[in-house]
Amino acid sequence: MDLLRIPNPVPNTPPSKAQGLVDRISAAFRDLPDSRKPGNNTKYSMHDAACSAFSVFFTQRPSFLSFPRNLERTTGRSNVHSLFGVHHVPTDVQIRNVLDSVSPAEIAPLIEAVGDKLKDEGSLEHYRVLFGTIPLAMDGTDIYSSESRIHCPSSHVTHHSDGSVLYRHIAMTPALVAPGEPRVVALPPEFVVPQDGHAKQDCEMAAGTRWIDRWGSHYAPWGLCE
């Protein structure tokens, strides 16, 4: 179990660049709006729920909270506690319940800021390929799919020939990639959702076009290629 212990910080050691970024993320999550009414359902703060969800990018484990909880049992601390200052680690179901009311628009500026920080520090230079461009991969992915009646006004609806109906939540997820680089840099997503004033159902191509309209001027100077 000694291999799993989180080492104590070395005295007088300056914080790493990553820790500064983590601190910024943690601070942003403290400002998330909380629409819950006071009561037992507020045991987990918006900050703790959001940071616990974000920690999955650090733990790299298929089971969402098994690794930090095992660490907590054996060492009294977990990556979620030490990295983000989380007081209570919720389950994945509790995280979804707490964060369900948060609009993606609240998170997009943070994702943008993380990418900007990486670029400003030169951490994206090794992503550059032909003519100094950075490849941008953009594809749609289902984040929810159900043939039951469980859906919401944001669901994409597909009517099948057999009479069944499929409800989906779809996101366009742009990311910076590079050959031989196992890590990708996520950029703000765009969601396939019904658009005001449009009779036709939204689609991935339309969402991709909206993303370019919204973010193209910001990322074009980076030298991205799709």
Provide an overview of this structure.
With 226 residues, the chain is an alpha+beta fold. The chain has two domains: 2-99, no CATH class; 125-225, no CATH class. The protein is 37% helix and 14% strand. It has eight helices and eight strands; from the N terminus they run H-H-H-H-H-H-H-E-E-E-E-E-E-E-H-E. It has helices at 17-30, 46-54, 56-59, 66-75, 79-84, 92-99, 104-120, 204-219, and strands at residues 134-137, 140-146, 156-159, 165-172, 175-176, 185-186, 190-192, 224-225. The protein has a four-stranded mixed sheet with strand order 6-5-1-8, with no helix packed on it. Strands 2, 3, 4 and 7 form a four-stranded antiparallel sheet that branches. Strand 5 and strand 6 form a beta hairpin. Helix 2 crosses helix 6 (92-99). The longest helix is centred in the middle third of the chain and has 17 residues, at 104-120. The chain is globular and about 50 Å long.
